[in-house]
Amino acid sequence: MTGLDGNAAAGVLAEVFGGDVTAAGTVCAACGAYRFVGELVAFVEGPGTVLRCRSCSGLMIVVTTVRGRACVDLRGVVAFEPPDV
Q1: CA angle 64-41-58, nearest 5°?
Q2: Which of 10, 12, 54, 83 could form a Cys-Cys staple with 23, CB 3.0–4.6 A?
Q3: Up-side HSE of residue 21: CA atoms within 13 Å toward CB?
Q4: What are the pLDDT digits (tens) for 34-80?
């Protein structure tokens, strides 16, 4: 699989969060790097969408659909700063 720019996950993230969060700031739980969601490395070709830290490749965000319901795992994010509206 090829890692894409985090903006490739914009659609699925907008469905979950109700708007564009690619400008939201995140802090990686593994290395402490601060990155915008759009700067993360996205993998969208699997059974779900995975976003990894660009600095350490740590797993930050996973979005899957189970029985028609979106499931979001943010355990790799220690801080999530919503974008200014």
Answers
A1: 80
A2: 83
A3: 19
A4: 999 999 999 998 889 999 999 999 999 999 999 989 999 999 999 99
In contact, 9 and 62? CB cutoff 8 Å:
no
CA-to-CA distance for 46 and 2, rounded, in angstroms? 11
Q: How far apart are CA 69 and CA 64, in angstroms?
A: 8
Rg, Å, the chain Cα set: 12
The answer to whether 62 touches 48, Cβ cutoff 8 Å, is yes
* Amino acid present at 84: D
Rounded to whole angstroms, the Cα distance separating 57 from 40 reads: 9
Tell whether pTM > 0.85.
Answer: yes
